[in-house]
Prior knowledge:
The complex is a heterodimer.
Chain A lengths: L2 H12 L3 E5 L7 E4 L4 H10 L7 E9 L4 E9 L4 E9 L5 E3 L8 H12 L2 E3 L27 E2 L2 E2 L3
Chain B lengths: L20 H11 L2 E6 L2 H10 L11 E2 L8 E5 L4 H13 L5 E5 H6 L22 E3 L6 H16 L6 H13 L1
Parallel strand pairs in B: 1-2, 1-3, 3-4, 4-5
Helix pairs in contact in B: 1-5, 2-5
Amino acid sequence: MNTQEIFEVLKEKFGDTILEVTGEAPSDLSINVVTEKIADVCLFLRDTEIMNFDYLSCLSGMDYKDSLGVVYHLYSTINHQTVVLKVKTNRENPSVPTVERIWKTANWHEREAYDMYGIQFAGHPNMIRILTCYDWEGWPLRKDYKTPEAYHGIKVPY
Amino acid sequence: MGLLDRLDNPFEGGGIILGKVEDLLNWGRSKSDWYLHFGLACCAIEFMAANASHFDFMRFGTIPRPSPRQADFIIVSGTVTMKMAERVIRLYEQMAEPKYVLSMGSCANSGGPYWEHGYHVLKGVDRIIPVDVYIPGCPPRPEAFFEGMVKLQKKINEQQIFNKRKRLEEEDKKLSA
């Protein structure tokens, strides 16, 4: 089952929630999804017999300059197939529903995306920073991030 | 100039050595350094190689200690992040005097490959604690590490340990004059 076929199935089930397929065929395709419905779509992909996406390979944050986003790489260990989902969210108050209840591995991935991009995952049980210090200011992987001059009195730049 | 070599000296033969107590103490201190290993990144892997039987770090008389209270020197090997920097200060402050610091690898020396864009990396551990010996390399070979260890032993051997307060007062007078 390739991305285009998965897209057709999702379109039939969720209607306008599934936006489009983007990227270059055959390997670079991804399905854009409406942000609010991502958790429902993920649950469907995991639990439907023909999909069986039982493994979240990677969840990563993105900075598209005008907006932020999250990319989900799913893998099925039963059907040996992959699919990529993408959602977008605004820069000012970024929030995406959590998929932590669907794949437990998303817990740390979402904390990392929060740490680096400031994306809030609504419903996450422990939405705190994972890599940088708990009192770190700013979101380091955003494109407009400026390196701080000092941290707790220690000079940061070279 | 080893103390035991001097027993072969015709003037000092017969089991008697004339010398300073300071030399004897420094000889003992430099030949039984206990270390606190603070491994932070890939340099710690290289240090493991130096510690294993092939290179045998313990021939310097060193013993790894899990507690800073029992350690004579600390080996900072690897990238010191801002999050870890505060822990490094804390461990250093817990060590008893006299204490020494070995900075191992480019990251601990100056930030290494993170010197320009590493928002999270401390650009050299000498910004937070005084370093005695810098060991260059990314990571340093065990041979390079041992040269650093020899340098540290040399430094300890040449150190004056008595009349510290008197010496410091004299230095203060010189500075204020």
